[in-house]
Amino acid sequence: MEAAINCYLNNEKIEISALATELGISRASAYRWLGDNDRVLCEVLMIRTRLNFEDRRSENLHLIGRARVLGVLNGFMRHAAESEHLMSALMADPPRVMRIVASSAFPMQRMVVGFIQGLLIEEEAAGRIELPVDARALAYGICRLMEGFLYADLVAGESIDMDRATTVLELLVPNDGQ
């Protein structure tokens, strides 16, 4: 995976056969250990996404309730939008990357929904926000909203507008519960 992450960070296409050659192993072994090209790219994107979310959580530890949720989500979304590596992967093969990040065919979207759900549940359990619907439903809606704005240029021919995304996100995140 380290070699695959390096490819991603160098804005290179991740291909099992090239990784196998680089690592001095057979293609068959690489496929057996890692899976196909899409699975490896998914794993790399999941690792990078997990780091992004954890970093945004750490940056917003000083906040509570709605402010914390919005701080984490806005930072997470903006970091993704500003990622030259993610944008490079998207531009190189939009259908492939969109299928990996925004469909049920891969675990990526479920992971992001889970991260958002966990954040919402944490703030709700502490009595700092009151959720108008169950945390899973709200997390799914927030995730789809962020995807809609992050990939607006590819999906709808719209320009990416993180300020507008933040405004809409603020409408979804409930006020503090105190």
UniProtKB/TrEMBL annotation:
<dbReference type="Pfam" id="PF18598">
    <property type="entry name" value="TetR_C_36"/>
</dbReference>
<feature type="domain" description="QsdR TetR regulatory C-terminal">
    <location>
        <begin position="65"/>
        <end position="173"/>
    </location>
</feature>
<dbReference type="InterPro" id="IPR036271">
    <property type="entry name" value="Tet_transcr_reg_TetR-rel_C_sf"/>
</dbReference>
<protein>
    <submittedName>
        <fullName>Putative TetR family transcriptional regulator</fullName>
    </submittedName>
</protein>
<dbReference type="InterPro" id="IPR041485">
    <property type="entry name" value="TetR_C_36"/>
</dbReference>
